[in-house]
Design a protein that fits this description.
412 residues; mainly alpha; 17 helices; globular
Length: 412
């Protein structure tokens, strides 16, 4: 599900303004910051995003989440990875998107901004993949029309591109949460609203939207995922502080150990304890509450890993482009094997290791190779924004433009 590049822009006072070039009227170029090709040594500045105003570990976290999305969409060939990543990967992205939810603009302005940042790329990537399918399958007009109609309605599990459902769903989630924030100005009120929506989605509808979504633009799925979005918004101020504490690695190690246990054992042993509750509504409510716990544990494990790898430039670069990775996933997984066939190479995925390796290759192709082309020729439609002039060198600097033009929701 790329499901979501939540933009990691934060302010640290006058020092940050000077670091971004506001005091001198200059836009800092990427090459002005000393770094290695693939690794930047960890420092307090790198953890807070450095001169480009991003939070490094959030970019790394989004990379980990997108890798889980790519792995999960390969299905059963992923072995135990398949059910494991489906345990948490979509909630993780809604949590990350909620990190930077805004309450400082009108609802109308929020709707316009989100439509440009989420729905416009949804239309672009839907058309791109539809054209690809028409050529790949030699579709007649009837099949093409059916695909376009499915994209227009936007119901998860019914569109030809499985990962694109996240964008309209995030639009609904963010609008609903923004309305609550606008009137309450309280993240805890947003979290309470999200918890209520989660309960409605699991116990108040005729069909569970996680299994059988049926509302346009995934509005029924949004009832479930708005809780995770609100949780990210409410928890982020605390997370920003605790990830730098000396004791956080111990918490991270414990969470990773618990995640390993969940990988091998699954959640069945946890839910077996619910047999003590009487059958009916009480047991169902207890199952819903218990189902939140393993997701949070694995998300904390991912945050700990993201902190550990935040110095890897390549992974952070991919994490900055999760909008692109989400939109290009199905396209890349279809086109790349066909390109390999043209030079006599046949792809065969037969074990989880192959799934992980090929998922990373697909992410690189979608985020770096295709991303460079789209940044130049379709930046706004692909969610990357347009390049700007580097005032120091007098040349175009797409990377700086991408970093400088981010909104709180990010590229996804």
């Amino acid at each position: 599900m790329s499901v979501v590049d939540a933009h990691a822009r934060i302010t640290h006072g006058p020092e940050a303004d000077a670091g971004r070039g506001r005091s001198s009227g200059k836009i800092p170029a990427v090459h002005d910051r000393p770094r290695h090709l693939f690794w930047t040594p960890r420092s307090p500045k790198s953890s807070s995003g450095g001169g480009d105003g991003r939070v490094a570990w959030v970019d790394s976290l989004r990379f980990l989440g997108m890798l889980a999305i790519y792995i999960g969409h390969f299905g059963q060939v992923g072995g135990k990875l398949y059910p494991f990543v489906f345990l948490y990967h979509v909630p993780l992205f809604f949590i990350a998107a909620g990190f930077f939810a805004r309450a400082d603009e009108s609802i109308a302005a929020t709707a316009v901004r989100l439509a440009r940042r989420l729905l416009a790329p949804y239309v672009f990537f839907a058309l791109l993949y539809t054209i690809t399918l028409v050529l790949f399958n030699d579709w007649p007009w009837e099949k093409t029309q059916a695909a376009l109609t499915a994209f227009a309605v936007g119901i998860r599990n019914q569109t030809p591109a499985g990962s694109l459902w996240f964008l309209p769903c995030l639009f609904i989630v963010a609008i609903a949460h923004a309305v609550v924030l606008r009137f309450t100005r309280n993240p805890l009120a947003g979290l309470a609203f999200g918890a209520g929506c989660l309960l409605i989605s699991q116990h108040g509808l005729t069909a569970n939207p996680l299994a059988t979504p049926s509302w346009a633009l995934n509005a029924d799925s949004a009832l479930y995922y708005v809780f995770w979005y609100a949780l990210g918004h409410a928890a982020f101020p605390l997370l920003r502080r605790v990830v730098h504490h000396a004791w956080f690695p111990a918490v991270g190690i414990a969470a990773v150990a618990a995640a390993v246990w969940l990988y091998f054992c699954g959640t069945a042993p946890m839910f077996a304890a619910l047999q003590r509750f009487p059958m009916g509504r009480v047991q169902a409510l207890a199952a819903t509450g218990l189902g939140v716990l393993p997701v949070i544990v694995v998300v904390v494990a991912n945050i700990a890993i993201a902190r550990a790898i935040e110095g890897v430039q390549l992974l952070r670069a991919l994490g900055r482009r999760t909008m692109l990775l989400c939109g290009m996933e199905d396209f890349t997984k279809l086109v790349l094997p066909q390109a390999m066939l043209m030079i006599g190479l046949k792809l065969q995925l037969i074990h989880p290791l192959g799934v992980v390796l090929f998922s990373f290759v697909c992410m690189w192709v979608a985020g770096i190779a295709a991303g460079g082309v789209l940044l130049l020729y379709a930046p706004r439609w692909s969610g990357l924004r347009a390049p700007v002039m580097n005032l120091d060198a007098g040349t175009r600097s797409p990377q700086v433009a991408e970093a400088k033009s981010q909104s709180p929701l990010g590229n996804l």
